[in-house]
Structure formats: C-alpha cells, structure tokens
Give the backbone structure.
Amino acid sequence: MNGPDLTLLLLLLGALLILTALLFSAERHHRRHAARIAHQHALASTEQQNTAALAAGAICDGWTGPTREDPSR
C-alpha cells in the first residue's frame, strides 16, 4: 500500500468512526427525550387520577361544591 492509498483508508476509517459516534449520541439523546416525555405523561396521569379520586370522594361525602351565601340573611 502506497502513501495516498493509506491516507484515503485512514480518512475513511476516521469518517466512519465519527459517523458511528454521532449515531450513538443521537440514539442516547432520543432515549433520554423519550424517557422524559414518558415521565411527564406518568405524572400528568397520576395527577388526573388523584383529582378524579378526590372529586369522587367529595361527591360520595355529599359535598356539592361551593355555594353562594343566602342573600336573605
């Protein structure tokens, strides 16, 4: 192998290494982003379930919500 062939081979290997590193970096970023979104959805779902449970408990206890004061008093 003469000089130009070896140089071209090293350049190609370097480009392949850089592309592989970029691919793994993008995949890691995607996984972190997906995990963050899943966590946010889980929190929102839990909050909605807690709100629904509180509302159901209040209805079962007979609470009908805030009422206006009787103006005749």
User: Anything to note?
Assistant: Helices lie at 3-60. DSSP finds one helix and no strands in the chain.
